[in-house]
Amino acid sequence: MTFATEAADLLLLARSRHPVDRERLLTAIIDLCDRADIDEMAQPRVRDLVGSVFMSLVAEAERDIRRRLAEKIAPAPWVPAALVNVLSLDEIEIAGPLIAASPVLQDHDLIRLLVESTLDHQIAVARRGRRGAPVVEAILRQEEPAVLTALAGNDSAEITDTAMERLVDHSRRIAAMRSPLARHPRLSSDMAERLYLWVGQSLRSALVERFRLDPAELDSALALSIREAHAAIEGMPPAQAKSDAERESLEARLVDKLSDAGQLKPSFLLRSLREGRLTLFVTAISRLGGFETDHIRRAIDSDRPELLALACAAIGVDRGAFPTILEAVRELNQGRPGGGAEAGRRATGAFGPFDADIAGVVFRKAVSTV
Q1: Stated pTM of the model
Q2: 333 touches 343 (CB < 8 A)
Q3: Do the beta carbons of residue 260 and residue 223 sit within 8 Å?
Q4: What is the rounded distance in angstroms from the CA atom of residue 150 to the CA atom of residue 322?
Q5: Is residue 147 part of a domain?
Q6: How far is residue 342's CA from residue 159's CA, in Å, rounded to a whole number?
Q7: What is the DSSP-derived secondary structure letter of residue 75?
Q8: Could you tell me the residue range of the domain that residue 34 belongs to?
Q9: Do residues 222 and 362 both lie within one domain?
Q10: Residue 325 class from Cβ within 10 Å (0-12 exposed, 13-18 middle, 19+ buried)?
Q11: Same structural domain for residues 306 and 224?
Q12: Longest dimension (CA), the chain
């Protein structure tokens, strides 16, 4: 095909408003740019022209066309930055290929996505290969569990020793991070000893084999600390506590020790409620879900029992156990969360059909408005 013929075909496509013709026009322009000289495409005048053409077409393009465009231009270095940034803020199905692979996106663009975009976009940023230290630092500052978990599984990100230590610290409350961190190439033996206290038996065996740890010594120290924490809190009835703050501190230590040993389970929530320890319940559910304790307190003090249901669903509490938990919380919390029996029945809808991670995300967004 001669250049004149190709130009004539492009002109006809440009005059059409049919979606199929618009997609063909975008594809044809992409092909032209791919065949062009790289140095020529780098010239500001050419980049501005190409950018204006694409932006005018994308503004009118349907969703499927935008998705196909994003897939085609994702690996290309010549694509105007404005176009990439616009599409990277689009729906995640459109933005995903660009966030994952576009060489046009720089660290400052990715940090902007972490601030301005959805959770799915943030997870895609954390998974992107060879992420720079500024992006890693931005993820660590936000402390979003799902994004931190994605970063923990990214072996190619530029994670410093200090950043790695912070990830290991976060894994104490975010169980999903532990498995990828145990396999991470930047995990040191000192960090592995700390991680050992928080993981299950299979990961402990892997850490022992990889770093030649002494499991007997670690298990002995862990068991002793758990016994000490239990003795401290169980030997002090509520009436004998010197202050509420002291008791809460002891309860937090117990939860920490149980979590470190991998013994903090959803069943512990019912135990704490049966013993009349509401603050222990709040501390335990906060640790299990990686929630702020203030958010759990807001949920149980509200008139919306579905908030507590979402928190329970996020940590794997069985739907059938929730009515018992709700009744026990109300008995210990002056009838709150309110809403009565009907609201309690409706709250069980928080248990599906969706993943626990989604329940956690919905809980954090919903409780922040209470």
Answers
A1: 0.60
A2: no
A3: no
A4: 30
A5: yes
A6: 50
A7: T
A8: 3-175
A9: yes
A10: buried
A11: yes
A12: 92
Please indicate, yes or no, if residue 66 is contained in any of the structural domains. Answer: yes
Cα separation, 210 vs 208, in Å, equals 6
Give the residue among 82, 77, 84 at the shortest CA–CA distance from 38. 77
- Contact yes or no for 87/58 (Cβ under 8 A): yes
Q: Residue 264's pLDDT is what?
A: 84
Reading the block at residue 161, the tokens are 């020793």
* Packing angle, helices 63-73 and 81-88, rounded to 10: 130
Flag whether 181 is in a domain. no
Burial class (CB in 10 A: 0-12, 13-18, 19+), 283: buried
Q: Secondary structure of the chain: what % helix, strand, coil (to 5)?
A: 75, 0, 25
Range among 43-47, 95-99, 217-221 rated most confident:
95-99
Read off the amino acid at residue 308.
Answer: L
317 shares a domain with 249: yes
Q: 304 and 370 in contact (C-beta within 8 Å)?
A: yes
Distance (Å) of CA 286 to CA 46, 252, 365: 55, 10, 15
pLDDT in tens, 143-172: 898 999 999 999 999 999 999 999 999 988
Residues whose CB falls within 8 Å of the CB of residue 277, separated by 6 or more in sequence, listed in order:
238, 251
Query: Is it the case that residue 2 has pLDDT exceeding 60?
Result: no
Q: Do 275 and 160 sit in the same domain of this protein?
A: no
Least confident of 124-128, 233-237, 300-304: 233-237
The total of structural domains in the chain comes to: 2
Instruction: Note whether 84 and 113 are within 8 A (CB).
Output: no
User: pLDDT tens across 271-282, in order?
Assistant: 889 888 899 999
Same-domain pairing of 36 and 114:
yes
User: 48 and 134 in one domain?
Assistant: yes
Query: Could you write out the DSSP letters of every residue in 203-265?
Result: HHHHHHHHHT--HHHHHHHHHHHHHHHHHHHHTS-GGG-S-HHHHHHHHHHHHHHHHHTT---
Structure letter (DSSP) for residue 96 = H
Q: Which residues contact 291 (CB under 8 A, 6 or more apart)?
A: 285, 311, 314, 360, 363, 364
Q: How many CA atoms lie within 13 A of 108 on its CB side?
A: 1
